[in-house]
């Protein structure tokens, strides 16, 4: 290791924690968006229009 360089001990753990925190944050945002009334209405409309195209009654 070059003089003055710090040790890399614990870097893998720190990177793992940062990845976990980012994943939890993204998952929380995704759940919030997907459970919103507006997204529910949009998905419902898409499914109903798909049924109409295929001539299936709900």
Task: Name the features.
single chain, 58 residues, mainly alpha, 2 helices
How does this structure look, described?
With 58 residues, the chain is an all-alpha fold. The chain has a domain of 33 residues. The protein contains two helices and no strands. The longest helix is centred in the middle third of the chain and has 24 residues.
Give the SSE layout.
Blueprint: H1 11-34, H2 37-54
pLDDT averaged residue by residue: 85
General form: rod-shaped
What percent of residues are in strands? under 5%
Task: Give the class from helix and strand content and strand pairing.
Answer: mainly alpha
- Uncertain parts: none
Q: Helical element count?
A: 2
- Cα-based radius of gyration, to the nearest Å: 23 Å
Helix share, percent: over 70%
**Number of β-strand runs:** 0
- Distance linking N and C termini: 67 Å
Could you give a short account of the major beta sheet?
A: none
| Assembly type | single chain
Q: Helix and strand string, N-terminal first? A: HH
Quick take:
This protein has 58 residues and is mainly alpha-helical.
